[in-house]
Amino acid sequence: MADITRRLGWRHLRGTPTAHIRHHRSGRLAHDGPGLSFWYRSLSASLSEIPVDDRELAMTFHARTSDFQDVAVQATVTYRVSDPATAAARLDFSIDPDTGVWRGAPLEQLSTLLTETAQQHALDVLARTSLASALVDGVAAVREQVAGGLAAEPRLPATGIEIVAVRVVALRPEPEVERALRTPAREQIQQEADRATYERRAVAVERERAIAENELASQIELARREEQLVEQRGTNARREAEERAAADAVKAGAEAARTVRLAEAEATRQVRLAEAEAQAARAVGEARAEAQAAWLRVHGDVDAATLHALTGTRLAENLPRIESVTVSPDVLTGLLAKLGGTSGASA
Other CB atoms closer than 10 Å to residue 46's CB: what's the count? Predict the structure, then answer.
């Protein structure tokens, strides 16, 4: 929409580069072109604003296939006004000189024209196509038919309209039909999923079986090696016991030989000691016999008084030692009496 400002009865219009402005003053064309800016009087001016940019027109309509099934067609038509003068002459693009608002609805008229034309060509191609073919190849067929029909439509160039592109977004059947059509595919997909699940489970079971077999083989090998280990340990223990018994036998033989040697040495020593003691005893006996014989020979030549004296001396040597002598009065009186009697007799 053009930008219009007011100044003391004058109006100033400033257009955009995508809007073609046509200004008639008193029936004559004063300004014509896109992106214009000029002053004018509203009472004597007639203004038209024609958009010249590319515009997208989205349309949705229903059609019926050859097997009497309803489908919804979603399409988009891109168009532009290639001849603004022709479009302004055929459609009402006039704007209010005070506000810049379109007096009519030219874009709605263009939308109706393009939608009906595109719908007519789409219905022609879908009426000869079954639902299955339409869902498979209908998008391309409808797009080509609509594009060709719009390009060949004589009213569009006469209105100054150029078709830039045609796009068909989708062809959709009714929801019930779509669900019915999806059912076989879903069943097939489900069957494929189930088969994949069964195959995956079978592979998993096979892998588990292989793992179990490997574990069993490992356990068997481990048991066999443990048996070999036990057997080797028994052999080692038996060999060690045999070697220990042999060592003990050697040690016992050595101890027995040593004990025999010690016993023999001790017996030899005892024999020699006994012989030495016997010789010593014999020598002592002989010495004592000789001394006794000598003693007897000496005493045989001595008189009886001398022998008595020697006997007394020996007895005195063998008497116990007297530390003190206690004389009682009775003994002393008796001794004095005996001593007195002996003295009187001597006188």
Answer: 16
Tell me the three state secondary structure of residue 91. coil
d(CA 116, CA 39): 40
**CB-based contacts of 134-138 (< 8 A; 24+ apart in sequence):** 134/65, 134/71, 134/171, 135/71, 135/171, 135/173, 135/181, 138/71, 138/171
d(C-alpha 1, C-alpha 99), whole Å = 9
Instruction: In whole angstroms, give the CA distance from residue 46 to residue 30.
Output: 10
d(CA 337, CA 159): 208
Reported as a single tens digit per residue, the pLDDT across 125-161 is 888 888 888 888 888 889 999 999 999 989 999 999 9
195-208: b or e for each residue (b if 16 or more CB lie within 10 Å)?
eeeeeeeeeeeeee
User: What kind and span of H or E run contains 56?
Assistant: strand 55-64
3-state helix, strand, coil in the chain (%, to 5): 60, 20, 15
pTM beyond 0.85, yes or no: no
Q: Contact at 8 Å (CB) between 54 and 164?
A: yes
Structure tokens at 216: 């069993």
